[in-house]
Design a protein that fits this description.
Elements lengths: L2 H5 L19 E7 L5 E3 L5 E8 L5 E3 L12 E6 L4 E2 L23 E3 L4 E6 L5 E2 L3 E14 L2 E9 L3 E6 L5 H11 L22 H7 L2 H10 L6 H9 L3 H13 L7 H16 L13 H5 L16 H24 L5 H15 L2
Parallel strand pairs: 2-12
Antiparallel strand pairs: 1-3, 3-8, 4-7, 4-10, 5-10, 6-9, 10-11, 10-12
Length: 357
């Protein structure tokens, strides 16, 4: 991995978006490992804490980010050395289920003042470390705005901490996968909660998401026909076993007992398109005019937004996605009559709503 990619490790925020603010001496963010733990298995959630502190009462507001749900994000993880760490959502096209400003996140604001605010994050959402070793971690965040200038986030960079990544003991990943499969409940993740520290270790898809084994990827495919959980969706996107996922979904398209729902069909078309286009380039800007604003929760009165991507990557992705979607609709047309029982009824409704246009 070259130096340019290393510098955008975890998330391509800096260099992609304009500098919205400058560091300020009376505002700091401190990075620590939760419970002082610095040793983690590959495939295990790496939970860190960001401690936001302001010396001036009432001057700043914090929009706590606990999760990453867009390609563009107010948080950027910097991992050194970066050669064995990748941005797990480098070709994620957009937020899941976009329906307009404010759909993904709802306003959540915490005044910054005399009491510091701690926010937990999982490093795995911004940087996936895929080789054992010691790594130096910094976090850049633009989650704080001046109360009088809410449209200009303040750029903060944390201190550095070191974490040790080790290979999991034999059987550990398999045990985690089986436990996740036994817990069919959807994850308890809540985006932009009032509590800046919701549970970061929900069952099922959230566990499978970070394992990044082939078996975990195929287990996520098993969840997909019955769940729209965003952790499941992101797990499919960040898995290094994308080809196996697409092959399994193509087989399920023909399987008589697998119901094909609208989100299932769209996910397959999007995964195939993104795999063909490849990751974004460093110089690429936001795909949609609303992406950055929506993350910072400033879009409640943004007015009309354009559904068309404005950057080259987004235009190529959209064209390919439509092509793949037409192809899979054609396959569904032939397969729906072979579906049995509920799988037939659901697949037929999907064909009506998604393919008969």
């Amino acid at each position: 991995m070259n130096l340019k990619l290393l510098r955008v490790m975890g998330f391509l925020l800096a260099g992609l978006l304009p500098a919205f603010g400058q560091p300020e001496p009376d505002l700091t963010v401190t990075l620590t490992a939760q419970d002082s733990r610095i040793r983690f298995r590959m495939g295990e959630p790496i939970v860190l804490e960001l401690r936001y502190s302001a010396k001036v009462e009432g001057e700043y507001q914090l929009h706590p980010i606990s999760f990453r749900q867009l390609y563009y994000s107010p948080i950027r993880a910097i991992v050194e050395p970066g050669g064995d760490a990748v941005d797990p959502l480098a070709d994620y096209p957009r937020e899941f289920g976009f329906r307009g400003p404010g759909f993904v996140v709802r306003p959540s604001t915490i005044p910054s003042g005399s009491q510091p605010v701690n926010v937990r994050i999982r490093l795995n959402e911004w940087a996936s470390i895929r080789k054992a070793g010691r790594y130096r971690i910094n976090i850049e965040t633009q989650c704080v705005v001046r109360k009088r200038q809410p449209a200009k986030p303040v750029l903060l960079r944390s201190n550095a901490i070191a974490v040790d990544i080790v290979a999991p003991e034999p059987g550990w990943a398999e045990t985690q996968r089986e436990r996740a499969l036994q817990t069919r409940a959807r994850s308890s993740r809540i985006d932009a909660p009032e509590d800046p520290n919701p549970p970061l270790s929900p069952p099922g898809p959230s566990v499978l998401r970070f394992l990044e084994t082939k078996e975990a990827a195929l287990a996520l495919v098993r969840f997909l026909p019955t769940a729209t959980d965003i952790e499941l969706q992101l797990g499919l996107w960040q898995s290094p076993h994308r080809k196996d996922i697409i092959d399994a979904m193509r087989a399920d398209l023909q399987n008589a007992d697998v119901p094909i729902r609208f989100w299932w069909l769209r996910t397959l078309a999007e995964l195939a398109a993104a795999s063909t286009v490849g990751p974004r380039v460093v110089s690429d800007s936001a795909e949609y005019a609303w992406e950055w604003d929506d993350v910072i929760w400033r879009c409640s009165n943004c007015g009309p937004v354009s559904p068309e991507p404005r950057a080259e990557w987004g235009q190529r992705f959209q064209a390919l996605m439509q092509s793949f979607r037409a192809d899979y609709c054609s396959q569904l047309t032939a397969a729906v009559e072979r579906k049995r029982g509920e799988a037939h009824d659901i697949s037929f409704q999907t064909w009506v709503s998604e393919c008969r246009r």
